[in-house]
Write a structure and sequence with these properties.
It is built from 5 helices and no strands. The protein has 66 residues and is mainly α.
Length: 66
């Protein structure tokens, strides 16, 4: 599931949820809900994260490997 991949990418880059929330301009609690699947993540945030991590959206959605 892509939510696991978002967490893995964050941890691989030694980032805390607060770091990602700051990058996206949201509260940490909102980002936490994204990662846990309690709230849908907007496409604009997914694009920003893909750019930040240097991966494609297909990678995030597990449609391709690194």
């Amino acid at each position: 599931m892509y939510l696991r991949r978002l967490r893995d990418l964050r941890e691989d880059h030694d980032m805390k949820q607060q770091d990602v929330a700051d990058l996206l301009g949201i509260q940490q609690t909102v980002y936490s809900r994204y990662e846990r699947g309690y709230q849908n993540i907007p496409l604009e945030h997914l694009v920003k994260l893909a750019d930040h991590y240097g991966v494609t959206l297909d990678y995030i959605f597990e449609r391709e490997s690194k």
